[in-house]
C-alpha cells in the first residue's frame, strides 16, 4: 500500500505580492491555510494604512471573502493580489 504524502507542489509557506491602490507592492509570507482575514492582518502589520476592516482583496478578478482560505482561491507562490 502506498502511503499518502503531501503534494510536492504545495509548499507550506511561500510569498505572494499585494499591489495597493497607491501603487505600492508588498511581499507577504503566507500559507495556503491562511484565511483572507489573516492575510489582511499581515498586510496591516506591514503597512498600518491598510485597514483589515476597510480594504478588500482581489485575485484573478474575484473579490476575496474574509472567511475563506488562500487554498480556496488556489493562490500560488509569487501570485499578485490587489488591495482596494
Provide the number of structural domains: 1
Succession of helices and strands:
EEHEEE
Count the DSSP helices: 1
Question: What is the CATH architecture descriptor?
Answer: Roll
Relative strand content: 25-35%
CATH topology: Ubiquitin-like (UB roll)
**Class of secondary structure makeup:** alpha+beta
Q: What kind of sheet is the major sheet? A: 5 strands, mixed
**Strand sequence of the main sheet, in spatial order?**
2-1-5-3-4
Can you identify the CATH superfamily?
Answer: Phosphatidylinositol 3-kinase Catalytic Subunit, Chain A, domain 1
InterPro entries: Ubiquitin-like_dom, Ubiquitin-like_domsf
Protein name: RL40 protein
Pfam family, one: ubiquitin
Domain Ubiquitin-like: 14-84
Task: Give me a quick take on this structure.
InterPro entries: Ubiquitin-like_dom, Ubiquitin-like_domsf. The protein is of the alpha+beta class and 84 residues long.
SSE layout:
Blueprint: E1 14-19, E2 25-30, H1 36-46, E3 57-59, E4 62-63, E5 80-83
Parallel strand pairs: 1-5
Antiparallel strand pairs: 1-2, 3-4, 3-5
Structural account:
This protein is of the alpha+beta class. The chain contains 1 helix and 5 strands. A 5-stranded mixed beta sheet has the order 2-1-5-3-4, covered by helices on one side. A hairpin with a 2-residue loop joins strand 3 (57-59) and strand 4 (62-63). Mean pLDDT is 90; it is low at 1-8. It comes from Rhynochetos jubatus.
Supply the key terms.
84 residues, disordered N terminus, Ubiquitin-like (UB roll), alpha+beta, five-stranded mixed β-sheet, 1 helix
Amino acid at each position: 500500500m502506498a502511503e499518502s504524502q503531501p503534494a510536492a507542489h504545495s509548499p507550506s509557506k511561500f510569498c505572494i505580492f499585494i499591489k495597493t491602490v497607491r501603487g505600492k507592492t508588498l511581499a507577504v509570507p503566507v500559507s495556503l491555510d491562511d484565511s483572507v482575514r489573516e492575510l489582511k492582518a499581515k498586510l496591516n502589520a506591514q503597512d498600518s494604512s491598510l485597514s483589515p476592516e476597510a480594504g478588500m482583496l482581489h485575485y484573478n478578478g474575484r473579490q476575496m471573502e474574509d472567511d475563506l482560505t488562500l487554498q480556496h482561491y488556489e493562490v500560488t507562490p509569487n501570485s499578485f493580489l490587489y488591495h482596494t
